[in-house]
Automatic annotation (TrEMBL):
Transmembrane parts of this sequence: none
Record bears the keyword Nucleotide-binding: yes
Signal sequence range: none
Organism (species): Fulvivirga sediminis
InterPro entries reported for this sequence: 26S_Proteasome_ATPase, AAA+_ATPase, ATPase_AAA_core, P-loop_NTPase
Keyword line: ATP-binding, Nucleotide-binding
GO molecular function, one term: ATP binding
Domain of life: Bacteria
CDD domains linked to this entry: RecA-like_protease (cd19481)
Organismal lineage: Bacteria, Pseudomonadati, Bacteroidota, Cytophagia, Cytophagales
PANTHER family per the UniProt record, alphabetical: 26S PROTEASOME REGULATORY SUBUNIT (PTHR23073)
Domain AAA+ ATPase, first and last residues per copy: 253-385
Similarity comment: Belongs to the AAA ATPase family.
SUPFAM superfamilies: P-loop containing nucleoside triphosphate hydrolases
Name of this chain's protein: ATP-binding protein
Length: 463
């Protein structure tokens, strides 16, 4: 099993021993349980062998492996930080540990407010809040509470690494009243070292895009390939540029690129290859699911995608982007005004996104000029020329199902000015026909018929 570990903001992969991982978590949970027992005994002035929770032995994780221990060690978490980290994981792996904090104050016939915590539908146990965490590490000692405030500020690694649930407390409520919970996408990582994959749907309108191809399988012109290398260079040197060279004060975070050109020229495949070559997952945003007739739903649907993308260093790919990022309408109605507000929101989220964003469009002119100024690159995907079409025809068929001798690929390349996507549909059709007929090769007649069908579908009339 692979483990992904946080090192300097990057995600590293290494082997994980699930038994060692379980041992580490068990030690941390037992320690937290003991700390809570002592904290309650001290709080209620009950008999205990300890004057303070700091007297309790802390498990030594310095030589331990596994994603949890690696996160603790790489971020040099102190005992208090470790306690509140394991606390945030408890509802996911051992919720009964917090049942003791559900004790009711009989004088007021309600739970003890100093314990913090909230109850949620669908979960019988206590969901800790930041107040719960503060009570465990500081009790009601004002000096200790002031000292540990730094843990709950947004510049702490718990927030900057985004391992905490991004949901915040209600407006105007006390700062420590928000839930203290590991975000779902990090539970699998901290427990089993596995990457979390969100489920595609109306609430999460993005799907991962993968490819089994390599750059050698792509046929693009030299200028396009040079522009794509710039994106790869940015992915490789981004941290050095923004942090080591101190350019983060002057440059906007992330990289935004527009891919434009006719359908079938390889825009989506190239985005997938960029992800594969840079080690970053690519997620294609389904714009048809993003745009909602309900006010506020578009922002809500996209917020999760952007948030996950920031946390996991995704490449966000907006296909057919002109349908949403095209020239904005004149404001004549309330719907027009809200539509433009939606676009403004999306533009701002993309501009502030610290990762790589790719927008794909058939025509560069379709994209609003107010947005094109924000691109770091605009890369044209042209229709392949004769030589490129010949290369595409050559490499598209299976070597195990050869073409009959009468088929002249140079002739096809010169005669039919079509994109690679259309060619692959032709290859699929002609291959299926050969297999159906139980032939060991593809014949010219059926290849030509497949070409004609695709031309007709594309609205191309050949003389």
């Amino acid at each position: 099993m692979d483990e992904r570990n946080f090192i300097g903001g990057m995600v590293m992969t290494q082997k994980i021993n699930i038994e060692e991982q379980a041992t580490v978590l068990t030690q941390e949970l037992d320690w937290l349980s003991h700390v809570i027992s002592v904290r309650l005994a001290l709080h209620f002035e009950q008999e205990t062998n300890y004057l303070d929770i700091s007297e309790l032995p802390v498990p030594d994780l310095r030589k331990k492996g596994g994603s949890y221990a690696n996160f603790v060690n790489s971020n040099e978490l102190n005992p208090a930080e470790r306690l509140v980290l394991i606390l945030a994981l408890v509802p996911h792996i051992q919720p009964s540990l917090l049942d003791v904090l559900l004790t009711k104050n009989h004088d007021y016939d309600r739970r003890y407010s100093e314990f913090g915590g909230i109850l949620m539908d669908g979960h019988l146990g206590l969901i800790p809040t930041a107040e719960t965490a503060m009570f465990i590490i500081a009790g009601e000692n004002i000096y200790a509470r002031l000292h540990y405030q730094y843990i709950f500020k947004t510049d702490h690694v718990f927030y900057t690494s985004r391992i905490l649930d991004s949901a915040t407390n209600s407006k105007n409520s006390p700062r420590l009243s928000g839930k203290w919970l590991i975000a779902n996408e990090y539970v699998d990582f901290l427990t089993c070292g596995q990457e979390y994959t969100p489920v595609y749907g109306a609430d999460f309108p993005a799907q991962r895009v993968d490819t089994s191809l390599n750059w050698d399988d792509v046929v693009l012109n030299r200028k396009t390939m040079e522009s794509l290398r710039e994106i790869q260079y940015w992915a490789e040197y981004e941290e050095e540029i923004m942090q080591d060279l101190g350019m983060g004060r002057r440059l906007k975070p992330g990289y935004k690129s527009l891919f434009y050109g006719p359908p079938g020229t390889g825009k989506t495949m190239t985005a997938a290859l960029l992800g594969k070559s840079t080690g970053r997952p690519v997620y294609r945003i389904d714009l048809s699911m993003v745009v909602s007739k309900y006010i506020g739903e578009t922002e809500k649907n996209l917020a999760k995608v952007f948030d996950y993308g920031e946390k996991q260093k995704w490449i966000l790919f907006f296909d057919e982007a002109d349908s949403l990022f095209g020239k904005r309408t004149q404001v004549n109605t309330a719907n027009d005004r809200y539509g433009n507000q939606e676009i403004g929101y999306l533009l701002q989220r993309i501009e502030d996104f610290s990762g790589l964003v790719i927008l794909a469009s058939n025509l560069k002119e379709n994209i609003d000029e107010a947005f094109t100024r924000r691109f770091q690159s605009m890369i044209e995907f042209r229709m392949p020329g004769v030589a490129e079409r010949h290369q595409l025809w050559q490499q598209s068929f299976s070597q195990k199902l050869p073409l009959e001798a009468e088929i002249d690929l140079w002739d096809l390349a010169e005669k039919y000015e079509i994109a690679g996507g259309v060619m692959m549909n032709v290859v699929r059709k002609s291959t299926l026909r050969a297999l159906k007929a139980k032939r060991k090769h593809i014949i010219k007649k059926e290849l030509n018929e497949a070409i004609q069908q695709e031309l007709y579908k594309e609205g191309i009339i050949m003389s």
